[in-house]
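Sanity check record (used in CI):
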Amino acid sequence: MTGPTIGTLRVNGATLHYEVRGRGPLLLLIPGGTGGAAAFDGIADDLAAEYTVATYDPRGMSGSTLDDPEAEQSVAEHADDALRILDLLSPCEPARVFGSSSGAIAALHLLTAHPERVERLVAHEPPVVEVLPDASEHRALVARVRATFHAEGLMPAMAVFAAGLKKEGAAPTGPKAATELPPQAAARAERTMANLPYFVGRIVPGFMSYTPDIHRLEALSDRLVLACGQDSRGELPYRPAAFLAEHLGTELRHFPGGHTGLTTHPTEFGEALRKEFRGGH
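Expected output for Hydrolase:
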């Protein structure tokens, strides 16, 4: 299969790098964390057999540059970026949308702000911790991460963040031993590391303080699928999706792997995603 078509899109305060594959109705994939468009390399080609698959680097990540690198980041602005991609690639038809982690938070805002542009949204583990009964604890975690980042630097802040996300009572995991990666995976890992300071310093505080409009989600629940990793039970990113699914009276879907099942189980993950866009069970 030929590679993706690469484009750039000028948006408010940034220039977005985006990639398009395949043909058919539009499927927009919104990445989370630090992965950017490359996070979908394992599933995009397969999905492109049925859809025009578009993905992009969120503003400030990888190839999407900010006019002001120090600008605070808001969920609403990131959702507006997704809207601009939809308007460019599917101006007349609503699209299918998938968002993962922080990308799922942006996707939830896109759905509530512009429901006419979204036919169906699959939101995988959006860490909207403000909906949880113990939200104040997670607010304190974000404050600790930010304080540690400014006082001690990136890796100590990441350690605090990782400890806050894991299952209660789980043993802390040490750094993984270095392994020889294939060139493409090595390049992706290098980009991920380069994106980490921005993620910890800008995305984590801006996104984990976001509260979705639950009343709007109730009205739109027929086009929202909340999903979690089947190996994520008990971890912090799992809980908001499970809470929202129960509140909305919808079935929580379980995808292969954990929070990063997209990269650890790409074939099975892509198939589960395809099934949801065909209408679920």
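Confidence is low (pLDDT under 50) at residues 171-179. If this sentence no longer matches the regenerated tokens, the check is flagged for review.
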